[in-house]
Amino acid sequence: MKPPYQPDPLGPDFSQLVLPQLPDYEGPIQAVLVRYRPEPAAPAAGAVLYVHGFNDYFFQREMAVQYATHGYHFFALDLRKYGRALLPHQRPNNVRNLREYDADLDAALAEIRAAGHTRLVLSGHSTGGLITALYAARQPGIFAALVLNSPFLALNQPWPRRRLMAPLAGMLGRALPNLPLPAGLPDTYGQSLHQAYRGEWDYNLAWKPNHVFGVNAGWLGAILRGQRQVRRGLELPLPVLVLHAGRSAGGQRWQEEFRRADIVLNVADIRRLAPRLGPHVTLQAVPDAVHDVFLSVAEVRAGAYAQLFRWLAEQVG
């Protein structure tokens, strides 16, 4: 008998299900499926599975409420070695091929289907956007739509690092997957989000720290191979919505504009590469949004949700 859903840290409206996976090079593995328990507004439009980004996990209660209000059963997945699924013997985010996540997604979708949901929307943010796009390309016909929130389609690095140093490190990752590399992200993004600093959100800083988790050459190689697939073209047959900030900004020291710009990725890369996902891509810039569009200030994310559900109504019904 499989274990039942258990209480979740997000409170009584949420519950979680541990999805054990086969061991890998670090030992035992699990993913964790989170569901929003209240029934969606009738008539139900289907179910959505959301996948978080890098240095991240699912904590966005508002997202679950929004989907339920618009008729969707809501589920989110903490991938192996992230958030709820991170085990003491594991290094966060440590994978050597993005296909390692297929087992996590397969198990989550099996549970969602077992609950009677057949009309499925897949959604991913940042690294989760890259992972879900590649997964959808390998699973034609399963999803009614794909929603990507600032997908990680290219490294946001200066030309020498992006074209020379990163590919070299990625190649080294095949022989030396545990070679440590700097993640290269300042702590200003986390400062802009968490209520203990300059933001409005409350989340577990052990699972989403301001000083992001380190990465290794194996992980970078996996990311670069996935991004190379996107550049070649995924030919996704389903409708795809790509939401992104209106502009990018940068800098090591805090600036007020960081509250209304993407300071993680270059939105020009997203605009350039998103059409290579397939022939039915809708690109939608969200002015004044941050990297995770749905963590922007209230009026900005309200507009983003309105755009999202208008698009879903048109594409999914």
TrEMBL record:
Residues 44-247 form the Serine aminopeptidase S33 domain. Signal peptide: none annotated. It comes from the Bacteria. This is Serine aminopeptidase S33 domain-containing protein. It comes from Hymenobacter amundsenii.
